[in-house]
Amino acid sequence: MTDHERVTVTCAAGKITGRSDGEIARFHSIPYSVIPGPFEDARRLPREQLSLIDATVHRPDTVALSVVAPAGARELADLPVVVYIHGGRFEYGTHGDRRADGAPNARDGIVTVHVGYRVKLEGFARFHDDEPNHYRGIDDCQLGLEWVQRNIEAFGGDPTNVTLVGQSAGATVALWLARRDHYRGAFRRIIAMSPCFPRQSFEQRKGSLRMVLGKPVTRVSLSRLAAEKPEVLARAYDRFRTIHGLDMALGPAGFDGAELTELPILLTSTRDEHYDMPAGRAVDAKGLGPAMVRLLARRMGVRGSVASYLRSVLELDPERPMGRLIGDSANRRWVSQAAEEAPGPVWLAEFVAGPRPALHCAEIPHLFGLAPEAQTDAGRELFVGFVRGNAPDWAAHDPATGRKTQVLNIANNDVILMEDTLKMVREAFSPAR
Q1: Residue 41 falls within a domain, yes or no?
Q2: How many structural domains compose the chain?
Q3: Where is each Carboxylesterase type B domain found (predicted)?
C-alpha cells in the first residue's frame, strides 16, 4: 500500500517499508545477513526473522543494503538492476553512498541496490582456517547478491539482468566475485571503475600487524580485542596501514584476469587518478619527483625499465611524475592487466577533464547521472546503455587486433577514440602473481 510517503513491498525477505515521493521509492538499510561475530563468516538471514522491516531510515553503521526504484514499480516489470559496491580502500564507505545515488537510475527505469560490507580487519584479515581466496567482506557482498536474486522482482527488478558495478575497492570486489571460484550466476556483466588490488597478500603483511598489535593475529584474539578494547584495535590498525602507506593495506591479493568468468566487462579509469594526493604533490612541488620515482618505482610495482617509465611520465606531465606513479601503481595498472587477461569481451573507457586533472572518483557522478550536465553526458549514456545490455559502440579490447579506448572529457563532453592509452602502464607494470 502507498500513500505518497510510505510504501511497503512484500517479498521473500518479508514486508519492507520505505518511503516514496511519488516518483522514486527508497528503502534504506535492509538487513541481508546474520553476522555471528565481527570476524566470523556471515550467514543468510532466515526469513522468519524479517516479517516486518522498517527501511525508512538510513543506518550507515550497519552491514545492510539499500534499494532505489521507480515509485509504483511492480513485480514482472523486469527493469534492469544495478548492484553497486562502494569504494574506500577496504577501510570505509557505506551502502548509502550519495555520490552514486540511484534516483537518476530510477527515472531511467533502472533499479539500484547499494550493498554494504565489512571493511578493515573485520572484512579482510585472514586466518589460518580460512578457505583460499576467501574474504569476509567479499562474502558479505556475495550474500547481498543472493538477496537480490531472491527479492528484487518485488521491487520491479529483473534478477536475470543484473549489472555489478564497483568503484575503486568496490571494483576490486566486483572483479573478485567474477572469479570462476566465486561466480554464482548472480550478475550478467560488470562495470569496474578504477580497481585497486594490494600488491602483497595479507599473509605477507601479517607480521607487521602482529608487531603493532603485540598479540597473535587469530580470530579469537581479534574478536576479544574488538569486544573489550576496540580503541586498541583501532589504533593498531592505524599503525598497520601507515606501515603500508604506499599501497592498500588490505584487500584481495594475487589478481589474475585469466581466472575471471567469461562476462562482458566495462573497465574505466581516470587519466589522473591519485595525481593530487598531498604526499605526491609535495614531492613534485619541490622538484624531487624524478628522484622519488627512481627510488620508489620498484616498491610500487614497476617491473619493466624504470628509466623508460620515467621518460614516458615526463613526456606526458613533466611537473607531476610522482603523482603519476601513485595513480598508475594504485589503479591504472590493474585496469590494464584486467583488460589484457580477461577471457570475455572488455571495453576500456578513460575519463579526462580538459585542462584540469581527472581525479579518482571524478567519473562517479557522470556515470550515475548526478553531474549538472547529466542529461547530455556521454558517460551517462554509456552507463545506461551497458546496464540495459547494449555493447559499447567501439571495438572490444583485443591485444592481437587493437587496444581501443574511448576517452570521455567530463569538462566539455567531448568523446574521442584513442589507441592504447595504457601502453606506458602496461609496459612498466608486469602482472602481479
Answers
A1: no
A2: 1
A3: 61-195
Choosing from 33, 168, 194, 312, the catalytic residue is 168
Cβ burial, residue 246 (10 Å; 0-12/13-18/19+):
middle
Q: Which amino acid is it at 295? A: L
- Could you tell me if residue 19 is inside a domain? no
Place of cell 592481437: 400
Q: Give yes or no: 168 in active site.
A: yes
The pLDDT tens digits of the residues spanning 168-191 come to 999 999 999 999 999 999 999 999
What's the domain range around 133?
77-429
The single-letter code of the amino acid at 60 is P
CATH of the domain at 265: 3.40.50.1820
- Other beta carbons within 10 angstroms of residue 266's beta carbon come to 25
List Cα–Cα distances, 41 to 241, 283, 366, in angstroms: 23, 42, 36
In a domain, 109, yes or no: yes
Tell me the pTM.
0.96
Segments in the chain below pLDDT 70: 1-4, 48-50, 373-376, 431-433
State the pLDDT at residue 49.
Answer: 65
